[in-house]
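Q: Structure tokens for this one, please.
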Amino acid sequence: MDAPTRELLAWIEERPRTYRETMDAWHSHCPRLLVWEDALADGLVRVARRAVVVTAVGRDALAGCRDEPAVVAAVDQLPE
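A: Here is the predicted structure, written as tokens:
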């Protein structure tokens, strides 16, 4: 799993996120930066009502990455 996808999953797991909050922080019109779209297509996240949640597949993938070198997410740089 690439670093941006790990950051997205960790960010969502940190606390409940709304769909709007997730789109504001992670949606991109840049075809080279499709973190949200890729995570959704790969079944790592899903939208449940208006909340975004990490799926069991996403949690397993994230847990597997925790043994790898840590990636520090720049959450404070994300739009509020």
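A few notes: The beta strands are 17-18, 45-48, 51-54. Residues 4 and 35 are 6 Å apart (CA to CA).
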